[in-house]
Amino acid sequence: DITLFCGSPSHTEVSLQAKSENKSPKSSGALHKLRKEWIEPILIAVVLVTFIKTFFFQNFKIPSGSMEDTLLVGDYLFAVKFLYGTKIPFTDHVIWKIRDPKPGDIVVFRSVEEKKDLIKRVVAMGGQTLEIRDTKVFVDGVEEILPPHAKITDSLVIPAGVSTRDNLGPILIPEGMLFTMGDNRDNSYDSRFWGFLPVKNVKGKALFLYWSWNSEPPIYDIAHKVRWNRIFNPIK
User: Fold this and answer.
1) CB contact at 8 A, 168 and 137
2) 3-state DSSP call for residue 130?
C-alpha cells in the first residue's frame, strides 16, 4: 500500500494565504466598481462623441464678422455633416450623401489657403455663370436677392480694375466647384479674392445656433453677455 502524507503548512504560508484571501476580493471588487462606474462609461462616451462628430454633427465657433448679421462673433453652431456625404476617416471615400451644396446654403469648409475651417454662403455652383456688377450679384443673368441679414455698408463702389470686391466676371464656375461669399459683403475674404471652393472641402451645412456669447459687455453683466434670443435659432 502507498500512504500519502500531507504536511501541515508553515506559518509563513498560512500568513500569505490569509493576506491573499483578505485582500483579493476587496481589491478586485474596487477595480470592478471603478471599471463599471467610471472607465467603461467614459470610454463609451468618447467613442460616441467621436462617431457623432465624424459622421453626423460637429460644433463650430464664429471668430470673425464676415457673416454678419446672419452670424455674429461669439456664435456657436452645429453643422450637419451627412447631408453632403461624410468621408471615411483617412480616405476620400464619401458615404451617406444626400445632396450636393447648393446656392443659399451656409457651409463650413476647410480652407485650402489658410488651412483652417471657415464658413460662407454658397452663391453659385458648378455649371453656373456668375457676375458682380457694382455690388449686385447675378447668377445665370438673374440678380441674386440679398439674404435677409446680409449687408452692404460701404457706399464706395470699387471699380473692377482696382479690386474684385464689387465688380467681377462674368465667370463660369467649373464642375465640382462652388463660389462662396460672406453675408457681410464689404468685409469678407471669400471666393471673390481666393477663387473657387472645391466641393470635396465642404465639411457640413450650418444648422442651428446652440450658444451665443457677446464679449463686449463686462464679465459681471451676464444678462447681456449671453445673447439669449439667438440660442437654438436655425441658420438661414
Assistant:
1) no
2) strand
3-state secondary structure of 165: coil
Query: Using the 8-state DSSP alphabet, how is residue 109 labeled?
Result: E
Beta strand 86-87 pairing with 75-80 = unpaired
Nearest C-alpha neighbor of 122 from the set 45, 206, 35: 206
- At 194, the amino acid letter reads W
Q: Which residues are catalytic?
A: 66, 120
Q: Can you tell me which residue has the cell 464656375?
A: 173
List, for residues 25-56, the tens digit of each pLDDT value. Answer: 666 777 766 666 677 667 766 666 565 555 56
3-state secondary structure of 77: strand
Residue 135: Cβ within 10 Å count: 15
**Three-state SS for 87?**
strand
CA count, 13 A, side-chain hemisphere, 99: 6
Cα distances from 161 to residues 102, 124, 158, 192, 213, in angstroms, run: 30, 23, 8, 13, 40
- Measured CA to CA, the distance from residue 80 to residue 59 in angstroms comes to 9
Q: What is the pLDDT of residue 5?
A: 33
Question: CB-side exposure of 110: number of CA atoms within 13 Å?
Answer: 7
Which amino acid belongs to residue 192?
A: R
Q: Which distant-in-sequence residues (6+ apart) come within 8 Å of 198 by Cβ?
A: 112, 176, 177, 178
d(CA 219, CA 213) in angstroms, rounded, equals 11
Q: Any bridge partners for residue 107, and if so which?
A: 120, 205
Q: What is the per-residue pLDDT across 73-112, written as a single tens digit (0 to 9) for each?
A: 999 999 998 888 777 666 677 777 889 999 999 999 988 7
